[in-house]
Structures are given as structure tokens and as C-alpha cells.
Amino acid sequence: MNNQVFYNISKIIERDSKATTYKFALLRGVIDIIQDNSPFISFNGNRVQIPTGLLIEKWLLYYYPILESITTIPQINGATNLAFSSQLVKLISDYETRGGFSAFYNDLKNKGIPEDLQADFFELAKKLRDTITKMPMRYIGRSITNDYYSIFNFDNQPIKRKSRIDIETLIKDFGTFSIPFEYYEAFKILGSFINGQDSILFKWAEFSVNASGNNLSIDKVLNEVLRSPITLREIKESKKLYNEILQKEGKFYCVWTGKKITSLSETNIDHVIPFSVWKNNDLWNLLPSTPPVNRAKRDKIPTQEIIERQKDLIINYWGIILESQSKRFQKEIQVALLGNHSFDSWKKHGISQLQNSCNYLIESRGFEGWKI
């Protein structure tokens, strides 16, 4: 199996667009279908064909409880709704007096959707197919190549409404999609680890639930296991430090452009390695930039090239931090960047390891690189 495929999957999960949960639902659905060893999976040359209806079924199972929940669980950025939200909410409402989620799934799998709901369900299924094929299938892989549909292909055959609508209708009448065989193999081998059923965290939570005599829930344990001691961006010390520089020098410079800054209102404190990636509030990782540059960088990782280009300014700021917060700076940079190297070499090895860490995040973890 080609190692490049695993690297590509990592990049897709980390770097492809995250404006909605569609990407995660598509990957989760494909993996679940493959893990189920569906008999409808077929092979055609170097691609694997799967009925799109099986994905529609999975998306119904994923999003029904989310939209039914009394707790708002955001699935899309901004004020807009999921493309199929109104249709699915109506279905959920229709099933409130018919037995709810379980009754709906039993109808879909066995009895067929009730006659008075068939027209609405048919439109919902078409909307789901259109959303799946025109959104995540189109864009997944854009972090690897600029091409659309670089991994997923699908056929867009016309759909005719039948007198009976159930899972067989979805499978037979809603077309197929395909993925490269090497992705199928990767999902077959590692899919359960990616999706979580066999992941270490899930097994940890499952053990704790069993050990509690089932007095705890998986969700409760996972929430606790995933808690981090560092949950907020903390930049007060850095802001104070750069304000002192302004009072003394009257200026300092954007770490990424060298542009002169003369007031704190023109300053953002940038996490060199983004907080969302490392959750690191070390002083060495907090350096001044202009607001436009900070907005452009956001959660991207500085490349080796821009660090090399700006290393003198980075080292200059580290020296100021060392002078102001000697003990804290030494401890933090030793653990994060210097490792077994002597602190005497903090300039050389600090910059070198910063470049190595950023390059690892870009090349191996799939985060987006950034440079001006």
C-alpha cells in the first residue's frame, strides 16, 4: 500500500475546508460502509464503486439525532443552516408521534416510508444526494491538488420516484460513487481507528464505563478524558511586555513583515505555532504582528523559509523575553524547542527546532503552510 495515501488522508482531515461537518460525515460514511463490508461494494479497474444510497442512509443516521437534540450542536459556521436541514427537521417532526428515530429507521430498513411521508422523504433523499455529491465530494482533496473531484467520482443519473421508498430504493436508484482502490484499502485497514470505534480514546472510555458498572456514559468519560489544562489563549504577559517596549523605545516591529508598530492598538500577539494546533502559551511562541498579517496567518503554520527570513527578528524578541522573564523563558524554550541541547545554544537550536516542528506539522500532519 502506498504510504502517500495515508499522508493524503491526514492532510484531508487536517487541512481540507472545515466550514461544515460535511467532510467528516462523508469520510465517516464511506469508512462505515467499507467496515460493514457491504455486499454492494464492487470493483472496476483501479476504482471501487459504492451505491450513493448507502451514504444517504449513513447521513440520515448521523444527522437525525443531532438535529433532534434539544442541545444545539453546531454543524456549520455562521448563521446559515445545513442544506438539508429544513427537510430533515420536518421528517423528525413527522416521526415524533410515530415512534421517533427508531421507528423511522425501522421503516427505512423494513416496512418502507409511510405513504403520506413518501413525497417529503423523496425530496429529502434527493437533497442529501445533491449535497453529498456537489459539496464534500467535490472539494475533498483540494489540500492535495487544485482539482475538483480529485478523489471522489459519482454518476448523476436521474431519479424517478417509486411507489415504495425504502433502503433498497436508495441503493438501486440513487446512483453510485467511486474512490481509488488504494483509499479503499486504507479505509478498510485503518478505518475503525480513524472513525473511533477502535481508537485508543474510545477503548479507554469503554473500559471506564464497564469498570463503573455502567454508571457512566461513553460521552461523559470522553468529555473528561479530552479535557485540557490549557483551554484559553493567554497573552496578558506578552501584551504587558510589548507595551513596556513601546513606552521605552516608542516602537517595535511586526515579526513577520518587519513593519514598524508604534501603538498597542496596531498590535496583535501572534501564536507562532497556532494555539489551535499546539495549545501553547509559552512566551517564546507569542510574538507581535500587525492585525492584517495576523488575520492572514490565522491557524496556518509558518514555513521554514519565512522563519529563516525572519530569524534575526525572532531571536531579538526571544532575547527581550529572556531579559524580562528569564526563568520562565528558559524553562519553556528548553522543554518545547531545545530538548537535550544546552541552553547556551538557544539561538541556534531554538530556531532550528522551530523550523523542524513547523515543517513536521506541514509535511507530516497536513496543516497548511504560511508565508508572505
UniProtKB/TrEMBL annotation:
Domain of life: Bacteria
GO molecular function terms attached to this record: endonuclease activity
Annotated keywords: Endonuclease, Hydrolase, Nuclease
Pfam families for this protein: HNH_4 (PF13395)
Chain ranges passing through the membrane: none
Residues covered by the HNH nuclease domain: 254-302
Upper classification of the organism: Bacteria, Pseudomonadati, Bacteroidota, Cytophagia, Cytophagales
Name assigned to this protein: HNH endonuclease
InterPro entries, per database record: HNH_nuc (IPR003615)
